[in-house]
Amino acid sequence: MAGQKMLKFVAVDREMPQKRPPNLRKQDFGEIYAEFAAAKAEEQASRCSQCGVPYCQSHCPLHNNIPDWLRLTAEGRLQEAYEISQATNTFPEICGRICPQDRLCEGNCVIEQSGHETVTIGAVEKYITDTAFAEGWVKPIAPSMERTESVGIIGAGPGGLAAADMLRRQGVQVTVYDRYDRGGGLMTYGIPGFKLEKDVVMQRMAQLEDGGVEFVLNCNVGEDLSFDAIRGKHDAVLIATGVYKTRDLPDSDAEGIVNAIDFLTVSNRIGFGDTVPEFESGELNAAGKRVVVIGGGDTAMDCVRTSIRQGATSVKCLYRRDRANMPGSQREVQNAEEEGVEFVWLAAPDGFEGEPVTGVKVQKMRLGAPDVSGRQAPVVIEGADYVEPAELVIKALGFSPEDIPKLWGVDGLEVTRWGTIKAEFETGATSLDGVFAAGDIVRGASLVVWAIRDGRDSAAAILNYLSESAAVAAE
Question: In this predicted structure, what is the pLDDT of residue 9?
């Protein structure tokens, strides 16, 4: 019976959920994709070939059991599909929305390689968990037995929250400390609502809190509370702060030149209904301005699309390589172009004019020989400089780690030459006993799905550490 439901990729074409028209979606911050209807989700899931070696699963950082939950969806067994989906993924409803499936699961789908187009894995994953929340299948964590040990987690982003979930399910007492007034990290304040609506994040936060995870918000470690105090209070500590230090450009401190994280955070706060003086004054508001965004990653795409929605007069994105060599999602580039963003390829900033800023000095580039990463390195074309007018320039050049040992006054916490925390592969154990680290603060700026993986791995290592410590204490 199950076989009759599957292997329909020859007869059924790939379909994504319907996308809202650009003229409508750029007027608000609502998600641009509609939800699958049950029949359509079943139809699209039935395209899975149930191959013997599921490359979709092996190329997922979480190794999600994708073929099984696609089969269950095709058979209309949604609650079972949800149980399998959440067994390996703490936040399937979030990964289904923001994972770059074209580079991970869907990009390695066997039927894609055979010319039949990939299964819409991300859209089905989103549908399964959205349905689970709507039907009440997602319950607060209820451990079978409470443990006396406690773990402090610094950072309420995806890595910290994934670890909190895993530890609470084993009965560990968990306290999460975060600098912001809401949990979720970049999922809350970095990623715009048109990619991830905030009620999706907040419902997961509520589920964790209802399950006994304690949150201490508005807490800057090193200022409001010392790291030593946190370490002294708990049996183990996990550092999952992410990376927030913006990579900068020289001589870019004129009024009107801003960091991407500041711009996106303020925009998301406005979406929550907060009053933000920097937005009201126009400092971090693109309305009525010519906007230039510098960078080619997903953060740059978030900035250009946010600027459009805020009512910018024009939005241009400068990137020093060409479209094929851009690190950001090609799907996001397409969405941005549909909404009116202009991409200026092979263009790099070479300074700024005006105070406040009136323009970006641009150097035109060509691609030369490959660099150490294997990508063609951009080379300046002499005499092709020009000035791009702008009243708002947004620097979206990526993020670096903050100097955690210095900020927190921690002795003995080893870091790498890149400033990330030095931690054991898989376990996340650091140079300090009982202190672990996970996510971007270890691996550098990366994907939400990798942070989830790291958080889950570190939680397993912390459980082993707690058990070993208890065994030693009992001797």
Answer: 64
